[in-house]
Amino acid sequence: MATNPYFTTPYTPTRPRMFNTSVAKVIWTLVPLVSLGLAAAVPFVVAAVKGVVKPWLAITYVVGELVIFGSVFLISPKDGDAGAPFAGLLLILMMITAATHTALLDNEKINVGK
Asked: Which parts pass through the membrane (predicted)?
């Protein structure tokens, strides 16, 4: 009996999934929003532990979150300070960016960090 390469080649391992259901995807996407950005990097750390993304992406998110929160806390609102709205804008942009990227963790078309 001749060997067939279609029968003898091993299966290519599939990339692990971050979300098992749509409900899990919605819950994980809401984490950065509900926590007001304090847990923006948590979905990426979990994805790195699961093997969905590379660890450098999770580290980048943790460092980025620390830099953004550090700069927001350094901008102290004083009487007549025009920099106070900028701190809020930074937090809102971080929350929106983290929620969008969390929703895209299982997207097959995105290859950065996977």
From this structure: 26-49, 56-76, 82-105
